[in-house]
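User: Can you recover a sequence for this backbone? Please restate the input before giving your answer.

Assistant: Of course. Working from this structure:
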């Protein structure tokens, strides 16, 4: 059997890829105030169409799911039409693209909510941190705990967004169950202190995710649906008493459902994000991602500060099937070309990550292929 490499083809379920270099989802806050993707966003994603797969920035599935201003949504016709223009442009450039669907949950603020209501979450616990609102950064507030009878509507919102993604022409969807957003808030016991069927033991905390996966799979074939998790990520004031057990259980429950992939955020130690040089990485034996891959039984995308050498090693050693790159794709629209040839990587400007215009977004040049 031929050894897989970072640039060998791969099928993620029903999604065929030309390479295993994945563009990670990155919030850039360039949508309209109503969450409609713009022509500038179409240009940005099209510039990066040489990725084996593009995963879009988090796209909220209902108005209460907004985490910050100018984030795109996928729950109105205008948003669907805006995303269709993005997708069509990426496809014309030969790329593949999936929509990352998420819900902010408690990681929001009344200024971002319909009617200035409280954000919702699994439990009424105040998280540390802040949300970027129309009035600038504002500290998180104590969320309103969702009642059990409200959760089917959340599930339906994900299913409807999956339907709209299908209509917009996406190649699939990624259900965002990481980074301290709503599904993750239900999964981890630091944020979920419920005593009903959606709280307590991990077998119950995983229920909302499984309900969403099932509902979305009724809309679109499971082979077009991926799930993203972040077992150790403290972002949005998240923690769990036993992340290895929690997320091994998640992987086991997602197994045999025919999903396209499991996307795991687990930083390397150290995290060389802006170099093509080889670097020491955390031994596979001490990392959770290969364990999750074994329990999941399907394709796994690794994510967490990989450089070219570390990514190649992860694929060749069967620790992951593909590797997602975040920050390097910001300043290097032609990242796969640079990684393949060992060319130098441009450095991104963090001051232009969130919001603004074309500066720091679509004005990073590609290296001519002849070079």
């Amino acid at each position: 059997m031929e050894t897989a490499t970072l640039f060998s083809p791969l099928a993620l379920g029903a999604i065929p890829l030309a390479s295993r270099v994945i563009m990670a989802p990155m919030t850039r806050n360039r949508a309209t105030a109503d969450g409609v993707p713009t022509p500038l966003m179409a240009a940005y994603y099209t510039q990066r169409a040489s990725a084996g797969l593009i995963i879009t920035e988090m796209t909220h599935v209902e108005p209460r799911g907004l985490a910050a201003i100018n984030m795109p949504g996928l729950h109105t016709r205008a948003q669907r039409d805006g995303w269709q223009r993005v997708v069509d442009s990426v496809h014309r450039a030969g790329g593949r693209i999936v929509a990352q669907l998420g819900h902010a949950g408690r990681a929001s603020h009344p200024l971002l909510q319909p009617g200035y209501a409280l954000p919702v979450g699994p439990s009424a616990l105040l998280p540390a941190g802040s949300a970027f609102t129309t009035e600038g950064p504002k500290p998180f507030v104590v969320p309103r705990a969702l009642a059990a009878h409200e959760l089917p509507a959340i599930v339906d919102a994900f299913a409807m967004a999956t339907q709209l993604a299908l209509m917009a022409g996406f190649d699939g969807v990624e259900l965002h169950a990481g980074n301290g957003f709503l599904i993750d808030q239900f999964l981890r016991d630091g944020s979920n202190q419920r005593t009903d069927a959606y709280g307590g033991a991990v077998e119950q905390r995983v229920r909302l995710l499984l309900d969403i996966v099932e509902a979305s799979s009724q809309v679109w074939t499971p082979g077009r649906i991926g799930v993203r998790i972040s077992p150790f990520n403290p972002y949005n004031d998240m923690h769990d008493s036993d992340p290895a057990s929690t997320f091994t259980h998640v992987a086991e429950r997602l197994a045999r459902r025919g999903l396209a992939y499991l996307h795991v955020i687990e930083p390397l130690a150290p995290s060389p994000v802006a170099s093509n040089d080889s670097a020491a990485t955390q031994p596979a034996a001490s990392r959770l991602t290969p364990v999750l891959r074994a329990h999941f039984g399907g394709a796994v995308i690794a994510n967490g500060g990989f450089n070219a050498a570390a990514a190649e090693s992860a694929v060749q050693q069967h620790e992951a099937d593909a590797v997602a790159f975040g920050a390097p794709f910001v300043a290097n629209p032609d990242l796969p070309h640079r990684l393949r040839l060992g060319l130098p990587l441009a450095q991104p400007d963090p001051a232009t990550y969130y919001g603004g215009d074309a500066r720091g977004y679509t004005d990073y040049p590609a290296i001519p292929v002849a070079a």
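That completes the design. The chain has a mean pLDDT of 94.
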